[in-house]
Design a protein that fits this description.
Elements: H1 5-43, E1 45-46, E2 62-67, E3 73-79, E4 88-93, E5 97-98, H2 104-111, E6 115-120, H3 135-152, E7 160-165, H4 168-178, E8 183-187, H5 193-200, H6 218-221, E9 229-235, H7 242-251, E10 256-262, H8 268-288, H9 296-299
Parallel strand pairs: 1-5, 4-6, 4-7, 7-8, 8-9, 9-10
Antiparallel strand pairs: 2-3, 3-6
Length: 306
């Protein structure tokens, strides 16, 4: 087929137009997937149980499981208080990596101080089924743990304490902003995914942060939390800067308490030991006694910065 010079010019123009449209679109799509992959790799680092591995329960614990909204079985350990009756039930939300095996000592420490404790793994962690994809999965699994304590263990909301470490604090704040509880504990917590992206990916332009799947906007959700808040952080913290802990404290309503533990880095509970668990115990016991007219901050929880 012979084309006139005018027709050939139109064909070349059309090809150029297609390339100018398709190449940027393809580049943008590949870049978005690369950004999402990097975000996932940084955010979630599950350690799945492998058949044959040692799976040692904490002292006095029972292996428990419950279903999330997708029908996936979430695995955990329920550690009853060493003294009866228990003062409260604590649900512990671990961070981005590992599984419940890494935090058994926390459950044992709290159980020895008069609390029932639920340690559990999000989907895709430890022996829990499924795969975690984004923050919505994490929040749904937090709801499942709360429902298990309420429905299977018969615990009242007024005696449920939510305790999160690192990324787990985002699940705690989200849950407490929607559902009633006695108190929350935020250990080494982040303010938002945007703030963390500025630290982990300093080369990434700020306007691209919004393309991520996760927000983890704890600092914006905290004003909706009405229960007592304990914020603890190491100084310095080489994972989540101490300034983010102080920002969470500033965003929370009274009654609230802030503990800065010098030298603790990102592992406040392991570094603080008995002293730290005593502080947590005092905070929870004071929170359980709080009435509508009690100033918890001034009466029981005078700010103690170490």
């Amino acid at each position: 087929m012979n084309f006139s010079g005018k027709q050939l010019s139109r064909i070349r123009t059309l090809k150029l137009l297609c390339v100018s449209i398709l190449f940027p679109t393809l580049f943008a799509t590949v870049s978005l997937y690369a950004l999402r992959w990097a975000e996932y790799a940084i955010t979630f680092q599950p350690d799945r149980y492998k058949a044959g591995e040692t799976w040692t329960l904490p002292t006095g614990a029972e292996d428990v499981s419950f279903l999330n909204q997708n029908g996936q079985r979430l695995d955990g350990w329920f550690i009853p208080s060493q003294s009866r009756p228990a003062s409260a039930t604590i649900i512990f939300f671990h961070g981005q990596g590992g599984n419940v095996g890494n935090v058994a000592f926390i459950g044992e420490g709290l159980a020895s101080r008069g609390f029932d404790v639920l340690l559990f793994d999000y989907r895709g962690y430890g022996r829990s089924e499924g795969e975690i994809t984004d923050e919505r999965d994490m929040y749904a699994d937090a709801d499942a743990a709360y429902d298990y304590v309420a429905n299977q263990r018969g615990e009242s909301a007024e005696r449920v304490v939510l305790y999160g470490h690192s990324l787990g604090t985002a699940a705690v704040v989200d849950l407490a902003s929607r559902r009633k509880c006695a108190a929350i504990i935020l250990e080494s917590g982040l303010t938002s995914a945007n703030d963390m992206a500025s630290i982990r990916l300093p080369w990434l332009p700020a306007w691209l942060h919004g393309l991520g799947r996760n927000r983890f906007d704890s600092v914006d959700k905290l004003p909706a939390v009405s229960c007592p808040v304990l914020v603890t952080h190491g100084e310095p913290d080489n994972v989540v800067p101490t300034e983010q802990g102080r920002a969470l404290y500033a965003a929370a309503h009274e009654p609230k308490k802030l503990i800065i533990l010098k030298g603790a880095d990102h592992g406040v509970s392991s570094y603080g030991g008995g002293y730290y668990f005593a502080q947590i115990t005092n905070f929870i016991e004071a929170s359980l006694k709080t009435g509508p007219s009690t100033n918890l901050h001034n009466v029981a929880l005078a700010n103690n910065r170490q």
